[in-house]
Design goal:
The protein is an all-alpha fold. The chain has a domain of 63 residues. It has four helices and no strands. Helix 3 packs across helix 4. The longest helix has 41 residues.
């Protein structure tokens, strides 16, 4: 097996995923099971938090749990981007 650099592995993976999606005519059906599983997880969490709630209340709480999950991911992403930007600026600041 050939030895690839991390950059080459990343490019190879991008090529594979783009080829895979190019071969998929209906991306919605391809990801349906994953979306259903994720929604089910939020519903289970809502039922654990509020066992006596109605289905309508569970749906509302599950929606908020889903929003909170994506907000947490966005916050973590913003922190990571900020840290990366600060690391890139440090050598330039030290050289000045």
């Amino acid at each position: 097996m050939e030895s690839l650099t991390p950059e080459q592995r990343s490019l190879r993976a991008r090529l594979a995923v783009q080829t895979s999606w190019a071969n998929t005519l209906d991306p919605t059906s391809r990801t349906a099971k994953a979306r259903a599983a994720a929604d089910g997880r939020f519903e289970r969490q809502a039922r654990e938090l509020h066992p006596e709630a109605t289905d309508e209340q569970i749906a509302r709480v599950a929606g908020h749990l889903k929003s909170a999950h994506f907000s947490r991911m966005a916050l973590a992403s913003a922190k990571a981007r900020g840290a990366k930007a600060r690391r890139r600026q440090q050598p330039a600041t030290a050289a000045a």
